[in-house]
Amino acid sequence: MARKKATSSDVAKLAGVSQATVSMILNRKCSVSFSRETVRKVEQAAKELGYELPGRRNRRENKKEKESILKQIKKYKDLSKNKDKTKEKVKRKVKEKVKPNKKDMTREI
């Protein structure tokens, strides 16, 4: 039979604290302070039970993936802008070369 996944309530019972305390300690809420002993008990209980914060790993991976995609989009946009500028420069140069010169038009053949 598969072992049940540990919950923050299980960690709280083992550590002898409330579930809210477990949540604040494991999520590293800096606006609340706890004694070193309480933090140690909660962290030890979580380790013993194999408790992991839900979605923590996935959030980090998703953040890295999003950053990578955003970098690629930015790079593509920069390339597109430069490409458009280059096209405009080429068009201007071609127009300059193709424009007939007044002297050429008045010259008789």
Describe the structure concisely for a colleague:
This protein has 109 residues and is mainly α.
What features would you describe in this structure?
The protein is mainly alpha-helical. 72% of the residues lie in helices and 0% in strands. Helix 1 packs across helix 3. It is rod-shaped, with a radius of gyration of 33 Å. The termini are far apart. 10% of the residues are buried.
Keywords:
rod-shaped, 109 residues, 5 helices, mainly alpha, single chain, 0% strand
How does the major sheet shape up? none
What is the helix/strand order?
HHHHH
Q: Taking Cα atoms only, what radius of gyration do you get, to the nearest Å?
A: 33 Å
How many strand units? 0
* Parts with pLDDT < 50 across at least 5 consecutive residues: none
Structural class: mainly alpha
How would you name the oligomeric state of the polypeptide chains in this document?
single chain
Instruction: Please tell me the overall pLDDT.
Output: 78
| Count of runs of 4 or more consecutive helical residues | 5
Euclidean distance between termini CA atoms: 101 Å
Share in helix: over 70%
Strand content: under 5%
What is the approximate shape?
rod-shaped
